[in-house]
Amino acid sequence: MDTTLRISSARTGSSFVASIEKISGQKLLACYQCGKCSAGCPMAAHMDVLPNQIIRMAQLGMQKQLLAARSIWMCVSCLTCNSRCPKDIKIAEVIEALRRTALRAGQRDDHLKIMELTPEARSVLPPIAMISAMRKLTS
Ligand code: SF4
Ligand code: SF4
User: How far is the CA of 99 from the centre of ligand 2 (A)?
Assistant: First the structure.
């Protein structure tokens, strides 16, 4: 009899895990925690949960903690993590899926309001940064 413990999103019974896998198109359980994604992330120093930890927590269905994490909003979608992953997991897409889930759940309503930025901020912020932020917060 095969007594090997096989873990799959179906076995965890977590609709959250299945949902994140469906939205992102990624197989979370392929991650074996090598840490290369976090090692190359330019925003890691500003994150409360590192990219490899995000994947681990997603595997475990830690919905509440992940949707409250600052990291999912700190990610700048540079895709460095995607290019470094030896398992071809697109971590950035997983993080995007988490943002979408948080937005759909109504957990975030702080969409970027351009006119509420100071004139000084508007004059120095590159337009692409504002467009990126608006996309991130309204997907
Ligand atoms: S690089 Fe890939 S396999 Fe390694 S910890 Fe990150 S997601 Fe997991
Ligand atoms: S896409 Fe996000 S998580 Fe990945 S390396 Fe860039 S900032 Fe970090």
Answer: 13
Domain ranges of the chain: 9-108, 109-139
Residue 85 CB–ligand 1 contact under 6 Å: yes
DSSP string, the chain: --------HHHHT-HHHHHHHHHHT--GGG-----HHHHT-TTGGG-SS-HHHHHHHHHTT-HHHHHT-THHHH-----HHHHH-TT---HHHHHHHHHHHHHHTT-------GGGS-HHHHHHS-HHHHHHHHHHHH-
Question: Which ligand does the CA of 136 lie closest to?
Answer: 2
Per-residue pLDDT of the chain (139 residues; tens, 9 = 90+): 444 444 444 455 589 999 999 999 999 999 999 999 999 999 999 999 999 999 999 999 999 999 999 999 889 889 999 999 999 999 999 999 999 898 888 766 556 677 788 999 888 888 877 777 777 766 5
Nearest CA, atom 4, ligand 1: 34
Query: What global pTM score does this model have?
Result: 0.80
- CATH of segment(s) 9-108: 1.10.1060
